[in-house]
Amino acid sequence: MARISFFDGFLWGAATAAYQIEGSPLADGAGSSIWHDWAHTPRRVRDEYGNPPCYITENGFPFPERPGRDTREDAERIAYLAAHVGRVGRSIEAGVDCRGYFHWTLMDNFEWAFGTSMPFGLLRTDFTTQERQWRASAYWYRDLIARGWMEES
């Protein structure tokens, strides 16, 4: 395994609102998105656009609730985050001037296209009581931020 380190001052967060372009061939079949294109060809930012400072401001994974499944145990989201944050780290190592990453989203929310059926949050929201519960991915992301590095498998 290789260690991917993030520089001091790298910004971490969880987005709560931002302009977004929907679509991820891996998540909803809607086709390619800006994030998907960037993640697979990050050096284009460096080589074709003068390497401007960039921030990933929305990147997340919906994890639909299903009867009998505890959505606080979201290994699929952790795997998605590890893969995408790893791509950000490798891009930085390749010279891309990426200065921050913000997960979409901190809490489950109302999505215009899906209502509340596609929870993206690191924190589960009970829409009846408004109670928030930490998911395994929230702990994983917190620990990544505290360490500033991750093991890549």
**pLDDT under 50 segments (min length 5)?**
17-30
Major sheet: 3 strands, parallel
Strand content: 15-25%
Q: What structural class do helix, strand and pairing data support?
A: alpha/beta
Number of strands: 7
Overall geometry: globular
Write down the overall mean pLDDT. Answer: 81
User: Considering DSSP H and I runs of 4 or more, what fraction of the residues is helical?
Assistant: 25-40%
Distance between the termini: 5 Å
Overview of the structural elements:
This protein is α/β, with parallel strands linked by helices and 153 residues long. The protein has a domain at 53-153. The chain has helices at 34-40, 43-48, 75-93, 136-147, and strands at residues 2-5, 11-15, 54-59, 98-104, 123-125, 132-134, 149-152. Helix 3 (75-93) links the parallel strand 3 (54-59) and strand 4. The protein starts with a strand and ends with a strand. Mean pLDDT is 81; it is low at 17-30.
Topology:
Elements: E1 2-5, E2 11-15, H1 34-40, H2 43-48, E3 54-59, H3 75-93, E4 98-104, E5 123-125, E6 132-134, H4 136-147, E7 149-152
Parallel strand pairs: 2-4, 3-4
Antiparallel strand pairs: 1-7, 5-6
Helix pairs in contact: 3-4
